[in-house]
Every structure is written in C-alpha cells, then in structure tokens.
C-alpha cells in the first residue's frame, strides 16, 4: 500500500488537519478534519482535536466510539458557533479492510481500477453541535488497485478570478485520468491542478488531502 498526505494552508498556520495514527502493527488510523475559521484560533482548536482523537484512538478500536468520545470532550469547551468536520477510519493492513465514520466531512472517494466509485458517507453530526452525538460506522473491503481519497473543501471550493469553483466533478475526472500515478505524484498533481485553476485569485481556504492506493 501507498499512503501520503499533503496540506497547503491559506495563511501562515492552518485549520485543516490530517493524521496517521499507528494503533498496532496491522492497524493504522487515518484522519482528516476541517476546523471552522482560519489562522491561529483554528490551529489551536485543531491541536485540541488531535490530542483528543489520538488519546481515544489508542485505547478504543471502535471508530464510532472514538469519534463520539472525542466529540464529547471537545464540545465541553468549544466556543458557541465553532465546529469541526472529521473523517476517521482504521485501516486493517492484513485484511485490507477500512472501517470508518464520517462526522459531517466531505465524502471521501473510493475509486476502483475500472472507474467505478463510491463515497464514504456513514457517520453522524459534525463535532461541537452536541456532546451526546452518536455515530455509525461502516467497513469496506479494499481490493488491489483501489484508490481512496480523503480531502477538505479547500479543494472542491477553490475559486478562480471568474468566480468559478473547482468542484467535485473536476476532481473526479483528474483522479480517473491519472489513476496509475503513485500516491505521492497523484497528490501533488491534485494540489498543482487546484493552484493552476485558482490562477491569480488568492487562496482562501486550506488545501488538504490524504491518498491511499492499494
């Protein structure tokens, strides 16, 4: 398997977050999140998320309970109006399965070699709405050649000088056209494509992704 992550903040510090959490020799946690706001306040909230999520992940094999517990802790001190979207899953390296829950985040894309795709939508509310939120989880079987992309809306909502957005359809076409590239090269191509699309228009949001190829 190949796994890579890239993040390009819109300001000196960003509010996006991605992480790889080594649970044991055969299980790896993958996370991506987008904190409301930008700059230092968002980065500080993101750091709290990382601490809560990592603390729960290493003691809890259930992804839905991990996210529910992290949400419970974060909701106690988050300011009103602040929120976090989070996608978290555990990759079983031996069985090639991926168990995930989605807390209001942009739906990750699972693309198969033949071009068929699905999005990973099972989950619950964004973090910070209620400290009692519950989450559903789902397990998907990964096959040889599959591609899994986790990303933040800084990619699909990137805007150019004509006030056009990059949008998901353009991202899907890029994935299909460059499916055979390595995880690292494809990640770089996605970021370069977004930057080229923006042209002279300033980057308004953090650009973050995690890409897995089996």
Rounded average pLDDT: 94
What helical percentage do the residues reach?
Answer: 25-40%
Largest sheet: 6 strands, mixed
Q: Between the first and last Cα atoms, what is the distance in angstroms?
A: 5 Å
The general outline is globular
In total, the number of strands is: 11
Structural class: alpha+beta
Radius of gyration: 17 Å
CATH-wise, what's the superfamily?
A: PPM-type phosphatase domain
Sketch the topology as an H/E string, one letter per element. EEEHHEEEEEEEHHHE
How is the CATH topology named?
Answer: Phosphatase 2c, domain 1
Q: How many separate domains make up the residues? A: 1
**Count of DSSP H/I helices:** 5
Q: Please give the CATH class.
A: Alpha Beta
- How much of the residues is beta strand, in percent? 25-35%
CATH architecture: 4-Layer Sandwich
Low-confidence stretches: none
Polypeptide structure, described:
With 214 residues, this protein is α+β, with helices and mostly antiparallel strands. The protein has a single domain, classed as PPM-type phosphatase domain (Phosphatase 2c, domain 1, 4-Layer Sandwich). The chain is built from 5 helices and 11 strands, in the order βββααβββββββαααβ. The strands form 2 sheets. Strands 2, 3, 4, 5, 8 and 9 form a 6-stranded mixed sheet that branches. Strands 1-11-10-6-7 form a 5-stranded antiparallel sheet. A hairpin with a 4-residue loop joins β4 and β5. The longest helix is centred in the N-terminal third of the chain and has 19 residues.
